[in-house]
Amino acid sequence: MKPYLQLSGVNKAFGDFVALDDINLDVEKGEFVTFLGPSGSGKTTTLMIIAGFEDATHGAITIEGQSLAGLAPQERNIGIVFQNYALFPHKTAEENVFFPLQMRGVKKAEGLRKAAEMLELVGLEGFAHRYPKELSGGQQQRVALARALVFEPDLLLLDEPLGALDKNLREAMQIEIKRIQKRLGVTTIFVTHDQTEAMSMSDRIVVFSDGTIEQAAPPLDVYHKPTTRFVADFIGESNLLDATIRSADEGLADCPILGQVAYRTEGQPRLHDGQEVALLIRPEHLKLSRKPLEECRHASMTVETIVNYGDNALVIGRKDTAQIRVRVPGADVVTLEEGDECHVNWTDHAVFVLEH
Amino acid sequence: MAVTVSNLAGRKNLWPWLLLAPLALYLALFFLVPLGQVAMMSVTEPRVGLDNYEKVLTGTLYRRVFINTFFTAALVTVCCLLVGYPLAYLMNHTTERRAMAILLLITMSFWTSFLVRTYAWMVLLGNNGPVIWLLATIGFADPPGILFTRFSSTLAMVHILAPYMIMNIYSVMKKIDPALIRSAESMGAYGTSLFRHVYLPLTAPGIANGSVLVFVICLGFYVTPVLLGSPTEQMAAGLIGHQIEQFLAFGLGSAMAIVLLIVTLIVLWIYSRRFGLDRLYG
């Protein structure tokens, strides 16, 4: 079956600067895909090319096999929520939501009824006649969402829409956007540089860096099986330790810091003996103890810094030349002090190998 | 200790007033006092009573002059808008360099004394001037006089007042968030409907500000209509000058000035009540 939205070989250059280099991506109908990456990584440029505000230097974009080439933004039937919502200040919430219907020649009575339904869906019944400046940030966000959805777009694009909200509201809106997206089944592309947003909302995360796609995979795969060092580093916290493959068949590597280490072989790329690799161990997969734990691999380290977060703490220790970061539940950290010697323990399953 | 602190705070609150004092004093002495005298004269010269106001409000000549004043101010405002809006739009949508060049031309003209600009128009439009010569050359056997008509005074006033309109509209256009336009486009808005439903309403505060400014300045315009305009289509300021300089009718002139002042204040009041647009969009 053909993918719903397809980007093939999309390039974008501004003069000599290559903003996007050969972007290929298939998106299924109804999928919620997040573009994640640092600023300047090309995620917003890709979004603007899909929306039609920028032209790709090369490459094609199709929706249900139909090329978008040469179509103005007006002809694409794509709903967009902008970073600062871009609500019309001279129109009420209802008029804002009615606007795309008005532009499509929908009669006022019918259009306003649809706008009211959409406002109700986003939880804003009773706010129809307010002007944007009379609404809170979260409410404006909902109006923008209603306006982008009311004309039943083929695609919904969200450009860092939660950036301006405070933390609690942001979490509420994450759940809300996800709920509405599921309900309407609209294919959605969400751009963010916030990895927790990406983890909690997406069916699939596309990690951008320097104008290329580093990895496109479901959130937990991106977290547990990153394909590149950049992805491992950018998403979550990580310990990355250099190592050499001793035996690819047995899943053994030599690590100057940890000694001989067995690693998880499933979901792993093909490796060969003697290959230089990096070992990824997430800080929450490590355990600290005074004495080595049984049934675990272990190494000794010196505690350098303890950062308390209340419900958990980050312990940064040193072993030879390497820093090792360990997440520990809050209660466990009480007995530790900076400068203590302790053991760091892990199971083979926690070790994942990255090719250099 | 606490006393000193509160004293300091008290003195601090006085500071703005202290800084304002020289200007306030100056305005009181040289603006409010003479204005009071004018008001006084309007009800005492040549004798005590409201005779002057009765004349101004009922006399056909005066009514005609006031109507003409309003009509001219409205005409000039509309012309300034028609000239200014496209120019401001052009400035906002061309390269930075060109916008700066246009801005420079406008400010150069704006900073030139309007007396100089008025005389320049007299030279250009006079019977021996280049415009008449051009008209004669291209075949007008007997070109009509352009100077001393409503046309010439309106043209010069539009030239003099257009910068106010352009600056007001341009500053509002510059502040429009490009995302608003993009978002309108993404929702299917094209050229004219985009302009009508989004761009024009967003620039309305600039139009309102510019129009009020031009209209109010135009209501009291003296030099240009007197020097360039038709003697049969006098404006209020010109007639006031006439009353005082030619007929020494201080009372009547004062009454007209007060009526003009009150009308101007009413225009400003209506504006701030009904079109407090920048507050709405803030």
From TrEMBL, chain A:
One of its GO terms (biological process) is quaternary ammonium group transport. Keywords: ATP-binding, Nucleotide-binding, Transport. One of its GO terms (molecular function) is ATP binding. It comes from the Bacteria. Residues 5-235 form the ABC transporter domain. One of its GO terms (cellular component) is ATP-binding cassette (ABC) transporter complex. PROSITE patterns: ABC_TRANSPORTER_1, ABC_TRANSPORTER_2. The keyword Transcription does not apply. PANTHER family: SPERMIDINE/PUTRESCINE IMPORT ATP-BINDING PROTEIN POTA (PTHR42781), SPERMIDINE_PUTRESCINE IMPORT ATP-BINDING PROTEIN POTA (PTHR42781:SF4). This is ABC transporter ATP-binding protein.
From TrEMBL, chain B:
It is a multi-pass membrane protein. The chain crosses the membrane at residues 14-33, 65-87, 99-116, 147-166, 206-228, 248-271. It comes from the Bacteria. Keywords: Cell membrane, Membrane, Transmembrane, Transmembrane helix, Transport. Coiled coil: none annotated. It is found in: Cell membrane. CDD domains: TM_PBP2. InterPro entries: MetI-like, MetI-like_sf. One of its GO terms (cellular component) is plasma membrane. The keyword Transmembrane helix applies. PROSITE patterns: ABC_TM1. GO terms for biological process: transmembrane transport. Residues 66-271 form the ABC transmembrane type-1 domain. Belongs to the binding-protein-dependent transport system permease family. CysTW subfamily. This is ABC transporter permease. It comes from Psychromarinibacter sediminicola. The lineage of its organism: Bacteria, Pseudomonadati, Pseudomonadota, Alphaproteobacteria, Rhodobacterales.
